[in-house]
Design goal:
Elements (H helix, E strand, L loop, with lengths): L1 E2 H7 L5 H4 L7 E2 L1 E4 L3 E4 L14 E8 L5 E7 L2
Antiparallel strand pairs: 1-2, 3-4, 5-6
Length: about 80
């Protein structure tokens, strides 16, 4: 975890994902592939969505060949 302000100062190019995080998020998890890239992680991952109590899909986007993005909220 990296302090958000520190990440913004040290990394000249934060991903669009990181720039879009809510102002309430004060720490960002950074994932680095050494010599290739360093990116902000968008959140916790699960093996299967069945591990979640409920998920409401808000939007799906085609981001290119074999690449999709899903926007969702978690239901309580």
């Amino acid at each position: 975890m990296v302090n958000r302000k520190e990440a913004e100062e040290k990394l000249l190019r934060l991903t669009t994902l990181a720039k879009g995080f809510s102002d309430e998020i004060k720490e960002i998890r950074m994932v680095e592939i050494e010599g290739v890239t360093i990116e902000a992680c968008g959140g916790t991952h699960v093996k299967n969505t069945s591990e979640l109590r409920g998920i409401k899909i808000i939007k799906l986007q085609n981001k290119g060949k074999n690449n999709r993005r899903m926007y969702f909220t978690l239901e309580k």
